[in-house]
Amino acid sequence: MNNRQARIFAWGSTIAAAVIFLGLTLDSHRQFPNLTNAENITPEVTHGKDVWHKYNCINCHTLFGEGAYYAPDLTKITQHRSEAYLHAYMRDPGSFYDEQRHRRLMPQQNLSEEEIVNLVKFLDWVANVDNQGWPPRPILVTGGFTAGPGSSGAGQPVPVQSSSTSVGVRPVDAGDDIRALGENVFRTAMPTCVACHSLAPGADGAGPSLAGIVRRTEALLASGNYQGQASDVEGYLREAIVDPSAHLNTGGMYSANGVSFMPDTYGESLSEEEIEQLVAFLTTLK
Question: What's the predicted TM-score (pTM) here?
Fold first, then answer.
């Protein structure tokens, strides 16, 4: 290749690269409205973003992998935590952690109810941005990793159902706090419930999926095949937690020699209040 050919090649390569770069840039801008669900940017979402900046949430948390990496990434948090949980957590984060045990505690920000509602709306908008699967392993507020939607293996918690339609202006009723605390117990009790049970229909692991547990319990209590002492759904759920061998699922998949594979230590490791909270959460799994 002589000098003239080399110059032509260099100029041609530069122009081709510039055209490709310009085309990709224009195509990206064309897709931004859909990728960022811009049509859902409401005044409440904008105010929620202002709340995020006002309280310097990014000093500890990350969105889209950008932030301080001190506390969990919240990019998809509304797909992993229910609205009730997020509201209760933001009102009083100290009730979800024991600082001596967990060695960390989110500061009490004293957010107003309006700020909480709008911040959750902002986080839900963030969660619905098409970020091409980033972050690949979102970190939950319990500090553990979770698999993406549809995961079904033992030890792979499935996200709690939530979507842009679930994060609305509905007032949080008085029972939401106890149910949200129960969700926290479900994910943090030792051993953790999510290590064996998923919340996705049909996604059985070391333990059965808990999706639809209320409906199945009602059918069991009415069937005449129930072997335990409970008389209602709440009683059955409490019994299953503290005395899992009181009634054994048929088929032998989750028990052997008349003993459930589920640990029988929760009656000792959980307080009565925590058991009550856990039962309240499980009763939401219709």
Answer: 0.52
